[in-house]
Amino acid sequence: MVKSDRTGNIQFGVLPYRIGAGGETEVMLLTSRGVGRWVIPKGWPMMGRKPRVVAVTEARQEAGIRGIVGRRPIGSYAYTKSFDRGEDRLCECIVFLMLVTHEASAWREQAQRTRAWFPRDKASELVDEGALAVMILNLLQAPGAMSYR
Fold it and tell me: How would you class 42 by CB atoms within 10 Å of its CB: exposed for 0-12, middle for 13-18, buried for 19 or more?
């Protein structure tokens, strides 16, 4: 098991999307473990792993998804991370875009989270962080968003 570095305030995540049957862009959100609010898959840096690899690992563990992930982040957002011991910490999540190609029927955190697909505008309304909501609304318009090589 790779050791996570929880001492800082940076996390890495993915903004999972797909193109629905009607040609509309849809975003996957999942519930947080504690409060159950809608979030994207994200996690702490992992020793010896690049940020993009960390984001992909978190997407697989938290949401059971795999896909094509952009090489460069599309942006970041700030949020308050609450810990079980009562500590709150202001964190920044650096976000990579993921075109979801596979959804597992069973995954590591399945019993702790719910995942769901939403139209882009609905997903932007469900998240608490304003900068993440803007990222969702501007999905696929970020410079380099489609750079996967």
Answer: buried
What is the fold of 10-137?
A: Nucleoside Triphosphate Pyrophosphohydrolase (3.90.79)
pTM of the model: 0.89
Read off the amino acid at residue 22.
Answer: G
Element containing residue 136 per DSSP (H, E) = helix 130-137
- CB–CB of 37/74 below 8 Å? no
The domain spans of the chain are: 10-137
d(CA 28, CA 116): 5
Residue 71, helix vs strand vs coil: coil
* pLDDT tens digits in sequence order for the chain, 149 residues long: 667 777 789 999 999 999 988 889 999 999 998 788 999 999 999 999 999 999 999 999 999 999 999 999 999 999 988 777 778 889 999 999 999 999 999 999 999 999 999 999 999 999 999 999 999 999 876 554 554 44
SS3 sequence of 18-55: EECCCCCEEEEEEECCCCCCEECCEECCECCCCHHHHH
